[in-house]
Design a protein that fits this description.
The complex is a heterodimer. Chain A is an alpha/beta fold. Chain A contains 16 helices and seven strands. In chain A, β5, α6 and β6 (about 150-160) form a beta-alpha-beta unit. In chain A, α8 (about 180-190) crosses α9 (about 200-205) and α11 packs across α13. By secondary structure, chain B is α+β, with helices and mostly antiparallel strands. The chains are: A alpha/beta, B alpha+beta. At the A-B interface, α3 and α5 of A face loops of B.
């Protein structure tokens, strides 16, 4: 079932329907779930529902025709504020929330929320990339989350509640979004024209982890090719860490001259590795082998002769997650890769 | 939509509407001005979602009504650089075509329906205030608003519209400025019981958009916004959510206080001189009233000290208090040097009250004198 073009989140839709019918919508939310599964689309659709001038919110059926609906779609509605981390930054800067030093508390999201709504009764703010809020930005949100201005609804979007400060978590209603089923990912890939071949769409969906963003990235053939190479290496009982680190660094540098695409690619590579150890851990604890043939082959080969058990796979998985955190924290990519691969190769079995 | 227009007149209206458009915004459509052309006339609309300005444009010949969005920077430059007396404009969702006698400009367009809509002035109940007075009401209070500490209700100016009066109040909790003037309520318009707090920036825009030549302006306070209409322009501003302090309780009523009649010019000059010897840490200057003289003295570690004497019509017992010179200067800055005012003081721990005969009042809390 889908709601207003939102696929695969029926439980969440139901939850909002209940609280809207009861007329008791909380005012601060933290939407969590993997990237690319439609949290933002859902938040926008919810904004449209709340702002629509033709249909009451409890019907959950915005008309898509009134001025409000059209302005939400065009991103120009005066009572809908959206902010996101600037693409070239690694942190969500405090200036986006309360203005720069000269205009403290005069510009940015929080002062804008302090005004009364223009058209209706509600104001909605969508704060994207909440994962990247730094301590200062997160702290300056606390007062607004604690006592939101009358009639406002604040929605934070992130991948995990663990990435938020406890003070933020405790002030928000947490709404969990589950990864999309593979069929839905395949369907969306075809609908959005990311791939044209239904067979290709299914294959990507299987690798996507339920997120459209990952599926889209994997539509890039070089990335898939590198994944094959990486899995072949990891499947061996012993591998040359220096050579592998070198090939990863070369591949990452191929992504472009700028830091952001390189960092993005490195995150993907670490993700592949984490996935591998995750599956290996499951397999060695007696779980099922993964569906993807390449991954299954690699996991089966490694389980046969690498000499480790589920616990040592878990250690390596943890090291991969640390590496991701280092990349997010702006560690020097080459050094981070070398240290990470070296640790993987030499961790005790 | 198709029109021809008088370039000079169009430009003056366009620039006023464009002044509201934000410089950098995540909503690109806001860096446009919307032109609405109907049988009744043409209106230019600019907004940053906080304040919206509607300008009526004269000198337009309408071939076909409709709407268009015009980019602030490029269209503004066309108006400025063109030397034609009249230009023609044809626009649809795809774009706009501007033609002069020997020039032609094609601009990309956007859907005018995406431009945020603000209501036009259709209120039947409103207050009528002379433009000159409204500007004074704004100028004399807006500086006292507290713009940067995050107490949102104090970031604006409270506007109270009563039977025969209009009152504006602003405070940052250390000083409070209030001005009251006569106004005519049409059909019983009043905002009693509502909190009409207008953001300080919007107040400044209103002040600038009004011309002293405008005779009467109309003000209507609604639950979420306030509208001000002059013959040329309609300005709408969103209100600040929150509660304004009970300012009437702050205004001291002290029959026994010392009241001294003074003139702005000489006292302001003395305050400016005394303020030379102050620094960031000690912004206070001591006011001593006694024996027909006001002594102002400033002192600051490593800067020195100052002592300025001014004759005043006062012979009562000595009164001492310390005031922040910036706050005092703010009061003088909005008044003519020849203007008379009354200064009311009690002692070092009570507020000083500055009043004029035209409804202006200004309360300043004294600084602590400990350690002096």
């Amino acid at each position: 079932m889908s709601w207003q073009g939102i696929e695969g989140h029926d439980a969440v839709v139901e939850r909002f329907r209940r609280s809207l019918v009861a007329g008791r919508l909380p005012s601060t939310f933290l939407f969590v779930g993997p990237a690319g599964i439609g949290k933002r689309a859902f938040a926008l659709q919810l904004a449209k529902t709340l702002l629509c001038e033709a249909s009451p919110p409890s019907h959950m059926a915005p008309c898509n025709a009134c001025v409000s609906c059209r302005q939400v779609e065009a991103g120009t509605h005066p009572d809908l504020e959206t902010v996101a981390k600037e693409p070239d930054r690694t942190e969500f800067r405090i200036e986006l929330l309360i203005g720069d030093l000269e205009h403290r508390m005069q510009e940015g999201l929080i002062p804008r929320l302090s005004l009364k709504p223009t058209r209706g009764q509600r104001k909605i703010a969508i704060l994207d990339d909440a994962d990247f809020l730094n301590v200062a930005s997160a702290n300056c949100l606390l007062k607004t989350l604690e006592e939101p201005p009358l009639g406002s609804v604040l929605i934070l979007l992130g991948t995990s509640e663990q990435k938020q400060l406890p003070t933020i978590r405790s002030r928000c209603q947490i709404v969990r979004f589950r990864p999309l089923p593979e069929e839905t990912v395949a369907k969306l890939l075809l609908e959005k024209g990311i791939v044209n071949d239904p067979f290709e769409a299914e294959r990507l969906a299987a690798l996507s982890g339920g997120g459209l963003q990952q599926a889209t990235a994997l539509a890039d053939a070089t990335l898939l090719e590198f994944r094959r190479h990486l899995l072949a290496q990891l499947a061996r009982p012993r591998w040359n860490s220096v050579a592998l680190a070198k090939s990863i660094n070369a591949f990452v540098e191929d992504a472009g001259k700028e830091a952001p695409p390189r960092r993005e690619r490195l995150r993907r590579v670490i993700g592949f590795c984490a996935d591998f150890y995750h599956q290996l851990m499951i397999y060695q604890s007696g779980g099922e082998a993964p569906a993807d043939p390449q991954l299954r082959e690699a996991v089966a080969a490694a389980a046969g002769d690498w000499g480790g058990d589920a616990a040592s796979a878990a250690d390596r998985l943890e090291r991969c997650l640390d590496a991701l955190a280092h990349v997010d924290a702006n560690a020097h990519p080459i050094t981070a890769t070398e240290a990470w691969i070296d640790d993987l190769a030499h961790a005790p079995l | 939509m198709k029109i021809t227009f008088d370039r000079e007149q169009f430009m003056s209206a366009f620039q006023t509407a464009a002044a509201v458009a934000p410089r950098n915004t995540p909503k690109p459509i806001l860096s446009n001005v919307k032109l609405e052309v109907s049988e009744q006339g043409a209106v230019l609309l600019g907004t940053d979602l906080e304040v919206a300005v509607r300008m009526n444009v004269e000198g337009i010949e309408i071939q076909r009504p409709g709407a268009a969005v015009l980019p602030v920077a490029r269209f503004g430059s066309i108006l400025r650089e063109s030397s034609d007396e009249r230009l023609s404009l044809e626009a649809d969702n795809q774009g706009a075509l501007v033609k002069g006698a020997r020039s032609e400009f094609q601009l990309p367009g956007a859907d005018p329906a995406e431009f945020p809509a603000f209501a036009s002035f259709s209120e039947e109940k409103y207050h009528e205030v002379p433009a000159r007075l409204l500007r004074e009401l704004i100028r004399r209070t807006v500086f006292a608003a507290d713009v940067d500490t995050g107490r949102f209700a104090l970031q604006g100016v409270l506007v109270e519209l009563e039977e025969n009066s209009i009152i504006t109040v602003a405070t940052d909790s250390r000083r409070l400025a209030k001005m009251e003037g006569p106004a005519v309520s049409v059909k019983g318009h009043s905002n009693k019981g509502m909190m009409t707090i207008v953001p300080a920036r919007a107040m400044q825009l209103i002040e600038r958009a009004l011309a002293d030549g405008d005779a009467e302006v109309q003000i209507a306070a609604r639950s979420n916004d306030i509208m001000v209409r002059s013959p040329r322009a309609t300005i709408t501003s969103r209100l600040v959510e929150g509660r304004f302090p009970k300012w009437r309780d702050v205004f001291p009523v002290r029959p026994k206080a010392v009241k001294i009649e003074l003139t702005v010019g000489p006292i302001f000059a003395a305050v400016r001189q005394a303020a030379i010897i102050t620094d960031q840490e000690s912004q206070g200057i001591d006011f001593t009233f006694a024996d027909g003289t006001l002594v102002l003295s400033g002192r600051a570690a490593e800067v020195g000290r100052s002592r300025i004497e001014t004759p005043i019509p006062y012979d009562g017992p000595k009164v001492d208090l310390t005031l922040n010179h910036k706050y005092v200067a703010d009061f003088f800055k909005v008044l003519d040097p020849e203007k008379n005012f009354t200064l009311e003081v009690v002692d070092a721990d009570s507020a000083a009250l500055f009043t004029t005969d035209d409804g202006y009042g200004y309360v300043v809390m004294p600084l602590s004198r400990e350690g002096r």
